[in-house]
Amino acid sequence: MDRHSIDWTGAMPAITTPFTAEGAVDHEALAANIRRQMKAGATGVVAAGCTGEFWSLTHEERAAIGATARKAVGEKGTVILGAAAITPGDVLSGLELAHQAGCDGALVMPPFFAHLSRAEVLAHYRSVAEATPLPIMLYNIPGNAGNALTPDLVDELADLEPVVAIKESSGDWLNFHRTLSVAGDRLRVFCGPSSTIGVPAIEAGCDGLIDCFPNVWHRLLDLWSLVKRGESRTAWEIQASAQEMTTLFTTGGRMLYPATKAAMDYLGLPGGGAPRPPLQPLTGAPLKELERELDRILERKDTAA
To answer: Dihedral, CA atoms, 301, 36, 143, 225, nearest 10 degrees?
Structure first.
């Protein structure tokens, strides 16, 4: 099994997980957001990842999210479900439930919090690979996980039988490009921060984009098709706006995931609402500035309904 065993490609948004006032997963709003993404040109979705607040979800909740995503995407789209956990056994429990929910693959980051040696990271993935019922998309997000999947490590992991793809979310262009260069012949390489480097990543030959910002602005989904059609000027204009948005969502007392949901609420889009604790809703001056600057960046046009 390798990159040729799957057909995952294109723009696949990292979907938020909306919650009801009582704190349960709001499957109706989740499905509405996914259907909106698919209508806008997404080729699938990644659910219960970092944008989906995986750390606050039980395996059973993740599996239910996977089932909702499967139904909302339909049989022709791709559903990747987050299976992040610290121990191999816990990852495999999530993988089995994702398989039962009808997902196409699972997003597996390195164990988090505990800082691991190269040998320990390899041993973790080998244990998971031996028993997974689903193809695996590696997930490199060292700023969150604390353990990096460096290009040389990915080069070795790419030879594991069920590993078929990677979401490279380091945010470091050199790291992304090196990963694409050393493993792109065996893995499908997806650009994580497509809001900042999506256009050059597509031009360099990546297989797709996975980002949280299409939840807010559907034009981010168009980067893929615009570059493929040679409409680089328009693509770079969207990229510039997305870069501004990235800075807005991560400065001034704002954190990415609550800011994403707050922006969705402001724009009247399904799938927002309050995050689960320990995250808190955006309020006060940071919220007002978010709303004001969103109006400026987007000019409130074609924000996807």
So the answer is: -70
**pTM (2 decimals)?**
0.96
The reply to whether 257 belongs to the active site is no
Residues 40-75 have pLDDT tens digits of 999 999 999 999 999 999 999 999 999 999 999 999
Q: What is the pLDDT of residue 305?
A: 41
Task: Give CA angle at 47 (44, 51), nearest 5°.
Answer: 115
- Which residue among 39, 125, 167, 266 is the active-site one? 167
Q: Which two tokens stand for residue 88?
A: 């191999």
DSSP per-residue string spanning 268-294: T-TT-SPPPTTS----HHHHHHHHHHH
Give the pLDDT of residue 299: 87
Q: What CA–CA distance (Å, rounded) separates 265 from 68?
A: 21
Active site residue 39: no
Q: Is the dihedral of CA 75, 5, 191, 115 positive or negative?
A: positive
In tens, the pLDDT along 176-201 reads 999 999 999 999 999 999 999 999 99
Q: Cα(209)–Cα(207) distance, rounded to whole angstroms? A: 7
pLDDT at 303 > cutoff 60: no
DSSP, collapsed to helix, strand or coil, labels residue 70 as helix
Q: Which of 39, 71, 125, 139 is catalytic?
A: 139
Tell me the backbone φ, ψ of residue 232, rounded to 5 degrees.
Answer: -65, -35
Name the residue among 33, 6, 20, 13 with its Cα closest to residue 273.
20
Q: Is CATH 3.30.70.360 the classification given to domain 3-230?
A: no
CA distance 95 to 104: 11
> How many C-beta atoms surround the C-beta of residue 235 within 10 A?
23
Q: Residue 302's pLDDT band (boundaries 50, 70, 90)? A: low
